[in-house]
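SAMPLE LOG
Freezer: B-3
Tube label: C17
Construct: single chain, 229 aa
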Amino acid sequence: MFEQAFKNIDDVLWKEAGCTTELDYTEQTSWLLFLKYLDGLEQDKADEAILTGKTYTFILDAPYRWESWAAPKDKDGKIDHNKAKSGDDLRDFVNQKLFPYLHGFKEKASGPNTLEYKIGEIFGEIKNKIQSGYNLREIIDHIDELRFRSQTEKHELSHLYEAKIRNMGNAGRNGGEYYTPRPLIRAIVRVVRPKIGERIYDGAVGSAGFLCEAFDYLSSGKALTTTDL
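STRUCTURE (predicted):
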């Protein structure tokens, strides 16, 4: 699922004059994936709050949530193209409203370890290089079809990011130096032998390969309780 979607997205980015390297492809895909993932995460938390009789306060204001500007849905759960932005309207919204809004979180955050601060930091360091709003619309449509809920889906996404990081290194671009082959990651995890209850730290977390393999290692334990799981 992810592999074909990434290929389709790369094909669209290839047409963009501002995207000429593997790093550009990865960067532009990443900020969109992040906002899609964040929207799903917040919606899950909102649903959980409802079940417990609580109220969840969204991080992003309504106009800047994925479901509002990127992929508004009709009653059948499909993208409502009458409401979805496209062309110059979409590009201008992203460049002139969305990115400045997200960058502003860095100043409003209560501290550097908060998600709000990280959001502001991310969108202060990158910019949208997809200058055709129609290309951006096509990429958004591909990304909106992706799901990140199951562990299998997260693993697949992690593997694909590793491949992209490796490709950056093969092309002589920045970023490839952060690639660690998956067999080496597995070997390191087996040597470290993490245990349930210990804190696992992945300093670079480029593709979250160490975290994914540590999770698999812990999940394969023979004496796991329901609490451990």
